[in-house]
C-alpha cells in the first residue's frame, strides 16, 4: 500500500510546472478499488473454469434467457443501438470523443487511460475467449467473456474515475460513483447482448468483471509510469542546473 500511496501524488516535481498531472486513480479510491478488482478477477477465473469448453447455457443462463425471450420490435431496436456502441465504428467514435474530452479538460493521463485501459480490457477479454473456449450458435462463435460488455464498462469506469478525481470525491462517494457507472454501462450492454442472443448472461457477468479487474490495475500502472517519468525529468533538470 505504501507504493500505491505514492502513485499519482499531486506534489510530485516535474517539468516546468513543478508538479505532475492529476492521478487517474484517486488516492481516496485505491483502498477499495484494489480488493474489488481482485474479487472481480476471481469471478472471471471461476466462471471461466466452470464454463470452459461448453456450447450451451447453464441453468442460470436459461432462466434469464427465458425472461427476456420474445422482446418486441421497439426494444429490439434499442438493443441493436446499444450493441452498435461495442462494434468497431461505434467503439472508435466513443473512444475519440472521450479522449478529446480528457484533453480539453487537461487530463492527459486520463486520455492515456482511455486508450490503454480499454485496449487492455478488450484484449484480455479476447484472450480469455480462446482460453476458455465457450461457444454460442456454433463452434466458431467464442462467447466468454462478452467483449462488448467489457468495452462499455471499461469506458464508463475511466469516465467515472476522471469525474471522481475532478470533483474531489471521498472514498465512499467516489467508489459509489465508479461502481454505479460500471453497473449502468455493464447492465445496458449486457441486456442488449442477452436480448439479441449474442451472449449468455454469464458471459456478460464475465465481461463486466473483466473490466472491473483490468481498469483499476491499468490506472495504477499509468500513474506509476507517469510519476517516474516526471521524477526522471526533474532529476535531469536539477543536474543541468547544477
Automatic annotation (TrEMBL):
**Topologically, how does it sit relative to the membrane?**
Multi-pass membrane protein
Protein name (database record): Phosphatase PAP2 family protein
Give the source species: Streptomyces yatensis
Fetch the Pfam families from UniProt. Answer: PAP2 (PF01569)
Q: Which UniProt keywords apply?
A: Cell membrane, Hydrolase, Membrane, Transmembrane, Transmembrane helix
Chief subcellular location:
membrane
Report if keyword Hydrolase is assigned: yes
Its domain of life reads: Bacteria
Q: Which residues form the Phosphatidic acid phosphatase type 2/haloperoxidase domain?
A: 111-219
Amino acid at each position: 500500500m505504501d507504493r500505491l500511496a505514492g502513485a499519482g501524488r499531486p506534489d510530485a516535481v516535474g517539468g516546468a510546472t513543478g508538479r505532475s498531472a492529476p492521478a487517474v486513480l484517486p488516492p481516496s479510491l485505491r483502498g477499495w478499488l484494489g480488493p474489488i478488482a481482485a474479487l472481480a478477477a476471481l469471478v472471471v477465473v471461476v466462471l471461466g473454469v466452470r464454463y470452459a469448453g461448453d456450447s450451451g447455457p447453464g441453468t442460470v443462463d436459461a432462466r434469464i434467457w427465458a425472461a427476456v425471450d420474445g422482446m418486441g420490435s421497439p426494444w429490439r431496436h434499442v438493443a441493436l443501438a446499444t450493441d452498435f456502441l461495442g462494434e468497431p465504428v461505434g467503439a472508435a467514435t466513443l473512444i475519440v470523443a472521450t479522449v478529446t474530452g480528457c484533453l480539453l479538460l487537461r487530463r492527459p493521463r486520463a486520455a492515456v487511460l482511455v486508450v490503454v485501459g480499454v485496449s487492455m480490457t478488450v484484449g484480455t477479454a479476447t484472450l480469455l475467449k480462446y482460453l476458455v473456449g465457450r461457444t454460442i450458435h456454433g463452434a466458431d462463435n467464442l462467447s466468454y467473456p462478452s467483449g462488448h460488455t467489457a468495452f462499455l464498462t471499461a469506458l464508463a469506469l475511466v469516465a467515472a474515475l476522471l469525474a471522481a478525481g475532478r470533483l474531489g470525491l471521498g472514498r465512499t462517494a467516489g467508489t459509489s460513483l465508479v461502481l454505479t457507472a460500471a453497473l449502468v454501462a455493464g447492465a445496458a450492454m449486457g441486456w442488449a447482448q442477452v436480448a439479441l442472443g449474442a451472449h449468455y448472461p454469464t458471459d456478460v457477468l464475465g465481461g463486466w468483471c473483466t473490466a472491473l479487474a483490468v481498469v483499476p490495475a491499468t490506472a495504477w500502472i499509468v500513474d506509476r509510469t507517469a510519476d517516474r517519468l516526471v521524477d526522471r525529468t526533474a532529476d535531469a533538470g536539477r543536474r543541468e542546473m547544477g
